[in-house]
Amino acid sequence: AQSVTQPDIHITVSEGASLELRCNYSYGATPYLFWYVQSPGQGLQLLLKYFSGDTLVQGIKGFEAEFKRSQSSFNLRKPSVHWSDAAEYFCAVGDGGYNKLIFGAGTRLAVHP
Amino acid sequence: DAGVIQSPRHEVTEMGQEVTLRCKPISGHNSLFWYRQTMMRGLELLIYFNNNVPIDDSGMPEDRFSAKMPNASFSTLKIQPSEPRDSAVYFCASTPRLGAQETQYFGPGTRLLVL
């Protein structure tokens, strides 16, 4: 069955530090992969997505993610974190057979000044 | 351009009462999704529609839950009777068309508390 694993429930970084959030997926075919962000009290907003082509994708707010098929991973990165990046981040895989998204459990990011 | 609109934003009710959550998708979007988010279970897909027709309701937890989409611009999720374990944030999302590659646009959610 398709699944998404985000190994880190909570991550704390200092403002200005680099960030990497991990995501591993289980899917038989070429996956559609997404990263969404949820700010407190808000709905989810798309950061970036990968369908095919260049395995390094750029998103909004200075985020990028790299698709590594050999590792079944789609990790999210940002070179320098800002306090406003504190939020919960969700990785998701698109299930082509059922036309829906399967979300990971999320990683909550805290940013120290 | 208006995004997905949900109402109410907050709802507090007593066990046994009927609760109706409302969603207006983005104009021109043909697919609509209802999710429930809790600390214990994370983000769960309850049901989704395409062109106003329910496609997959396998995530609806039990018969107390029902959803309708009478037209392209309106959907409801009803819980009758409500129970404390239904307390959660309920999100509605829409996409231009059905497909696993489509970006889902989420509403702000309805925070439901059942006492």
Record the SSE blueprint.
The complex is a heterodimer of chains A (113) and B (115).
Chain A (H helix, E strand, L loop, with lengths): L2 E3 L4 E5 L4 E3 L2 E3 L5 E7 L5 E7 L5 E3 L5 E5 L4 E6 L8 E9 L4 E4 L3 E6 L1
Parallel strand pairs in A: 2-12
Antiparallel strand pairs in A: 1-4, 3-9, 5-6, 5-10, 7-8, 8-9, 10-11, 10-12
Chain B lengths: L4 E3 L2 E4 L5 E6 L6 E8 L3 E9 L2 E4 L8 E7 L2 E6 L8 E8 L9 E2 L3 E5 L1
Parallel strand pairs in B: 2-11
Antiparallel strand pairs in B: 1-3, 3-8, 4-5, 4-9, 5-6, 7-8, 9-10, 9-11
How does this model look, in words?
The complex is a heterodimer of chains A (113) and B (115). Chain A is mainly beta and 113 residues long. In chain A, 0% of the residues lie in helices and 54% in strands. In chain A, strands 2, 5, 6, 10, 11 and 12 form a six-stranded mixed sheet that branches. Chain A has a four-stranded antiparallel sheet with strand order 3-9-8-7, with no helix packed on it. Chain A is globular and about 45 Å long. By secondary structure, chain B is mostly beta strands. In chain B, the strands form two sheets. In chain B, strands 2, 4, 5, 6, 9, 10 and 11 form a seven-stranded mixed sheet that branches. A four-stranded antiparallel sheet of chain B has the order 1-3-8-7, with no helix packed on it. Chain B starts with a strand and ends with a strand. In chain B, 38% of the residues are buried. Chains A and B meet through β5, β6, β10 and β11 of A and β5 and β10 of B.
